[in-house]
């Protein structure tokens, strides 16, 4: 963090020096970033070649290091080994990503099926793996597949989603199993069915029941099948949304009970 602060300080206050020694500052910036930041926001060869892994060290210093300073643990989103680590030491509760009515209002989409330009849309970091797969899927399926890099503007992102019949969730690389929860969550809220690239498993696994999954090898065939049965999937996904709301309500109720019993 101190190194990042120094780099930003030089960039802002000593631009000439920063530009003269830009290659050095560039390397320092890369070396200071966590693995999560590199793989999520960077698609350069440098980022992947060195595969800098300080991700779990970052997690330790931000969370686990301060474990003894708290009376209970509330884990939100995904659960792997946390329960084994924490539950026997302090009151522990795991809350999945749940549906909220207020948040969903920010994702209202109004579009007719006949106005949709694309069969499938992917938005996110366009890593080499994803670009190669998207181009391959376009060649295999001859479908209208739209893809774009990270879209920060919320309204623009909604406009892109509104123009697609389906959404795609792709791995960043061959080895990734943790998926973008926000991508799935947004698809459920907007009622746009999403197809996830997954061999049979991804984390968090409680989302399996609310999406459609297919292996990388058969992804193109599945996309064609979904387009040919669009009305079915549109109706079925609305049922999945209702099931997700019920799932969310149960966990929110359990959270209230947990807090009440502390």
Briefly characterize the structure:
This protein has helices at 2-13, 15-20, 22-32, 35-41, 45-50, 55-62, 82-86, 101-104, 128-141, 154-162, 181-190, 219-228, 230-260, and strands spanning 73-77, 92-96, 118-123, 145-148, 164-169, 194-197, 212-214.
Helix-strand string:
HHHHHHEHEHEHEHEHEEHH
- Structural category: alpha/beta
- Please count the helical segments: 13
Assembly context of the chains: single chain
Strand order across the largest sheet = 4-3-5-6-7
Let me know the number of strands: 7
**Main beta sheet:** 5 strands, parallel
Into which percentage range does the β-strand content fall?
5-15%
| Rg computed from alpha carbons, rounded to a whole number of angstroms | 21 Å
Shape: globular
Report on this model:
By secondary structure, the chain is α/β, with parallel strands linked by helices. The chain has helices at 2-13, 15-20, 22-32, 35-41, 45-50, 55-62, 82-86, 101-104, 128-141, 154-162, 181-190, 219-228, 230-260, and strands spanning 73-77, 92-96, 118-123, 145-148, 164-169, 194-197, 212-214. Strands 4-3-5-6-7 form a five-stranded parallel sheet, sandwiched between helices. It has a two-stranded parallel sheet with strand order 1-2. Helix 9 (128-141) links the parallel strand 3 (118-123) and strand 4 (145-148). The longest helix has 31 residues, at 230-260.
């Amino acid at each position: 963090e101190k190194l990042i602060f120094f780099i930003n300080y030089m960039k802002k206050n000593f631009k000439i020096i920063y530009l003269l020694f830009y290659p050095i500052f560039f390397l320092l910036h890369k070396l200071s970033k966590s693995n999560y930041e590199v793989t999520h926001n960077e698609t350069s060869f440098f980022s992947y070649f060195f595969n800098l892994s300080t991700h779990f060290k970052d997690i330790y210093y931000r969370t686990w290091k301060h474990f003894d300073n708290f009376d209970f643990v509330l884990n939100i989103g995904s659960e792997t080994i946390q329960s084994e680590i924490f539950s026997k030491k302090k009151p522990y509760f795991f809350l999945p990503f749940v549906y909220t009515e207020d948040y969903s209002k920010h994702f209202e989409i109004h579009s007719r099926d006949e106005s949709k330009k694309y069969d499938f849309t992917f938005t996110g970091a366009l890593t080499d793996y994803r670009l190669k797969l998207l181009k391959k899927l376009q060649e295999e399926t001859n479908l209208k597949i739209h893809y774009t890099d990270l879209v920060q503007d919320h309204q623009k992102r909604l406009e892109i989603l509104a123009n697609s019949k389906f959404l795609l969730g792709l791995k960043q690389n061959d080895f990734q199993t943790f998926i973008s929860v926000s991508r799935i969550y947004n698809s459920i809220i907007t009622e746009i069915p999403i197809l996830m690239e997954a061999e049979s498993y991804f984390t968090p696994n409680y989302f399996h029941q609310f999406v459609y999954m297919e292996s990388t090898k058969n992804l193109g065939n599945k996309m064609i099948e979904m387009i040919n049965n669009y009305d079915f999937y549109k109706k079925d996904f609305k049922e999945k949304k209702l099931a997700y709301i019920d799932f969310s309500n149960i966990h929110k109720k359990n959270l209230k009970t947990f807090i009440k019993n502390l």
